[in-house]
Design goal:
The complex is a heterodimer of chains A (290) and B (334). Chain A is mainly alpha-helical and 290 residues long. Chain A contains 12 helices and 2 strands, in the order H-H-H-H-E-E-H-H-H-H-H-H-H-H. Chain B is mainly α. Chain B has one domain: ABC transporter involved in vitamin B12 uptake, BtuC (Orthogonal Bundle). Chains A and B meet through helix 3, helix 4, helix 9 and helix 12 of A and helix 4, helix 5, helix 11 and helix 13 of B.
Chain lengths: 290, 334
């Protein structure tokens, strides 16, 4: 019989990871919801952000949490430029092209990282890396708790931006009716690039929260890319609430899968969910029928 | 897209010419570098031809063709190691295994109408599931992988020089060329392309999209599995990352897109161009990890941006640009 305390602590751990998944997935779902494209370079972009946090810490001694004001705008600029200069121009209005271009971008990013940083897995040391806090019978690492709170805060901020600001209104207008938005004087190309930028800045925030308790190597993104897609598909493509709930759910499933099936087989739970949802309910648990 | 059911003699002559030209290479050179180049280029072409059948002619973009490659590779190795079968028998099992996995994945995906990005993602996820499974179960050698004992002989499908492997992979490529030729000039191929161009109208004229797509994925999976089996015979080693990792899926897809999808020669042209590029970069930068793939990625983006029909479609692209310019200049003319 498995000790309930272990299960409880596993669920808590899953929730903390899940919050970061949710944040990553929010970026992906925003890009999908507005541009109606699947950003295949999402995982690779996260990997770049993780390296940025790593370099800032190792070379300039900047604490990952204090790096937020640097990495988040940096990722925003990257996303804006990628969409405006490459993705938009290469799409020729076809979805397959965008899929291929973002795939090409992810190949370039991953292998450029391999060139510069070699394939070594790198971690950073902070004063709080090994600090743990007791919650009931469970011990949770402090960076994970910070990540949980931070991811929820950033997600809330994102919802506010999309829901309450003029930019958010423009984004929602373009997502719903591109032609109409254009007629109302909205610069659609600009809104597209803004959405892509905001999507990638979610990754910047996620990277700052992740790295103190995680690692980075050139392939780290490919693990996250399928997880992020799973979350987005589970929550319904383009649904913010769905991404939040989906992220937490996937985090818990992964954690419990690891507990019951072992480290390597545990991940399979995620992919089974992914394939299952894609096959039987592609609109997601909360999404409208496609 | 014109579909020419009766013709095709010209294409057949082209295939015969190509195969005999390549077959001469091992007779006139002993250079290990040259033979290795030919072998690897043909091998890359084979993977790309396999992808092109489903992705090009069928219009179903798979991002996880490594699924079939890895299945073929593992079946090839396991049939010999665990069941003691002859490699030629193993090859038949490997190809059949690739087709069966294709049919199962296809049946699931097409049954529920997965298309476009969704299909790409689900194939990727299946490849990942297979990678984790082979990592976790003991009879695939888990993370250590499987190693074939070195026993060079024709009966063992292991050759002392690259020459034997060049002929082996050339025969696979020839089969793939003939299959593609068949797609171009058969009713089945016409149906497949009709479904790709417009599934609803294809259905309306009585084509069953489900069965036709299933046929395409079975052929594509079988050929890809032959590529996996070839890999095992050449390198005598396979592990989960090589077998089901994303690199093979990407290579197969990029070569087809670079050369020109849903054409007979596109995958070969693309594989050749990419391998020449890879050799040039190796000479320029030395053996840096990742540099090849950076080039592949850049080439992929540039091709999609500027040459949507691939290098093979250069003529057609140039023509349409020219006609566009001409029309603009001349106004009314058709």
């Amino acid at each position: 019989m498995i000790d309930l305390g272990i299960v409880f602590s596993s669920v808590l751990n899953g929730l903390t990871t899940g919050a970061v998944y949710a944040l990553i997935a929010l970026g992906l779902t925003l890009i999908y919801g507005v541009l109606h494209i699947i950003n295949f370079a999402h995982g690779a972009s996260l990997m770049l952000a993780l390296y940025a946090v790593y370099v800032l810490k190792q070379h300039w001694g900047i604490d990952p949490y204090l790096a937020l004001p640097l990495v988040v705008p940096g990722m925003f600029a990257l996303g804006y430029a990628l969409q405006r200069l490459i993705i938009n121009r290469a799409s020729h209005g076809k979805d397959e092209n965008i899929l291929l271009v973002t795939l090409g971008l992810s190949i370039v990013m991953e292998n450029a990282a391999l060139l510069f940083f070699k394939s070594d897995t790198r971690t950073i040391d902070t004063a709080y890396t090994l600090t743990t806090i007791a919650i009931g019978p469970a011990m949770i690492a402090l960076p994970k708790l910070v990540a949980f709170a931070g991811a929820l805060l950033v997600s809330g901020a994102l919802l506010l931006i999309v829901g309450k600001t003029d930019l958010g209104r423009a984004i929602r207008a373009v997502a719903r009716e591109k032609q109409g938005a254009k007629l109302m004087g909205i610069n659609v190309d600009h809104v597209y690039a803004m959405s892509f930028g905001i999507g990638l800045s979610c990754l910047g925030a996620a990277a700052c929260f992740l790295l103190p308790a995680y690692y980075v190597n050139p392939q780290v993104g490919s693990g996250f890319v399928l997880v992020a897609f799973t979350v987005v598909v589970l929550g319904g493509m383009g649904s913010f609430g769905g991404a939040l709930v989906g992220g937490l759910l996937v985090g818990v499933v992964e954690s419990l899968g690891g507990l019951f099936l072992g480290e390597s087989l545990g991940q399979i739970g995620i992919f089974v969910i992914f394939i299952g949802v894609l096959l039987f309910r592609p609109q997601g648990l909360f999404g409208a029928k496609v | 897209m014109t579909i020419d059911i009766k013709g095709g003699a010209k294409d057949l002559a082209g295939i015969a010419l190509f195969v005999s030209l390549v077959a001469i290479i091992p007779l006139v050179t002993d250079s290990g570098v040259a033979l290795n180049f030919v072998m690897m280029a043909l091998y890359a072409a084979l993977l790309s031809q396999a992808w092109n059948i489903l992705g090009g002619f069928g219009g179903q973009f798979s991002f996880g063709h490594a699924l079939f490659f890895g299945t073929g590779a593992y079946f090839q190795a396991m049939a010999q190691l665990n069941m003691g079968l002859n490699p030629w028998v193993a090859l038949a099992i490997a190809v059949a295994g690739g087709s069966v996995v294709g049919v199962v994945v296809g049946a699931l995906s097409f049954r529920y109408g997965l298309k476009g990005s969704y299909f790409a993602l689900v194939t990727l996820a299946f490849a990942e599931v297979f990678r984790i499974l082979t990592l976790s179960v003991p009879f695939t050698g888990a993370g250590v992988g499987l190693m074939l004992p070195l026993q060079e002989s024709f009966a063992n499908m292991q050759f002392g020089s690259r020459k034997g492997y060049v002929y082996l992979v050339l025969s696979f490529v020839t089969v793939a060329l003939l299959v593609t030729w068949g797609l171009k000039h058969s009713r089945f191929g016409a149906y497949l392309q009709a479904i790709r161009d417009n599934e609803d109208s294809a259905r309306a004229i009585g084509v069953n999209p489900f069965n036709i797509k299933l046929g395409a994925i079975a052929i594509s999976g079988g050929l890809m599995a032959a590529g996996g089996a070839f890999y095992v015979q050449v390198f005598q080693y396979i592990d989960p990352g090589i077998a089901f990792g994303p690199a093979t899926s990407v290579e197969a897809l990029v070569a087809a897109i670079v050369g020109g999808i849903s054409t007979l020669w596109g995958p070969l042209l693309g594989a050749l161009v990419l391998h020449v590029l890879a050799d040039i970069t190796r000479n320029m930068f030395g053996q840096l990890p990742g540099i090849n793939m950076v080039i592949y990625g850049v080439v992929l983006v540039m091709i999609v941006m500027f040459l949507p029909r691939g290098i093979g479609g250069l003529g057609a692209t140039a023509k349409s640009v020219w006609v566009g310019v001409w029309r603009k200049k001349d106004g009314q003319h058709e």
